[in-house]
Specification:
Blueprint (H helix, E strand, L loop, with lengths): L12 H8 L3 E3 L4 H17 L7 H22 L2 E3 L5 H12 L4 H18 L8 H21 L6
Antiparallel strand pairs: 1-2
Helix pairs in contact: 2-3, 2-6, 3-4, 3-5, 3-6, 4-5
């Protein structure tokens, strides 16, 4: 007989409040999707190191990796954003909180996401080399923290 594992967690009270307020919705859970979100996160942060891409491209990849990791953390609890305005930032903030990332790291991640939104909506504000490298380092820290908090997700 083979044992089936499940990575799904019970949602804490904070997620129940976000569900009640309509900011989150229940998601039909399966382990493949949870692993796919983690794989996307790791690949995006890894690929952001590729110097062949532009600074903006690398910045977007690192940001997408962190976003995917945070969505994965929410998904482990059977929830996903409801798609309301600001859902990306909310998912990143809640995901960081569920990983117990220190507040300064969470703040830096949210600031980088705000910069990404400005660029996405037409700002010509440049992305500095140091900013890309810093975001990649934040992605690495977030992945390591997720490995610590959810070790079975990485098996």
């Amino acid at each position: 007989m083979t044992a089936t594992t499940t990575l799904q967690r019970e949602p804490p009270a904070e997620l129940q409040v976000l569900l009640w307020s309509g900011q989150l919705r229940r998601a039909t859970y399966n382990e493949f999707s949870a692993l796919k979100l983690l794989s996307n996160a790791v690949c995006c942060v890894h690929n952001a190191r590729t110097p062949d891409f532009s600074m903006v491209g690398r910045f977007f990849m690192a940001n997408e990796g962190i976003h995917s990791l945070c969505l994965g953390v929410l998904y482990l609890h059977g929830m996903l954003p409801a798609g309301l305005v600001g859902h990306r930032s909310m998912a990143m903030q809640v995901g960081c909180e569920l990983m117990y990332l220190p507040h300064p790291i969470t703040d830096q991640i949210l600031y980088a996401n705000t910069h990404r939104e400005l660029i996405s909506y037409g700002s010509t504000e440049p992305v500095a080399d140091e900013e890309v490298e810093g975001l990649i380092a934040l992605g690495d820290k977030a992945i390591e923290q997720a490995r610590y908090v959810f070790p079975d997700w990485f098996l």
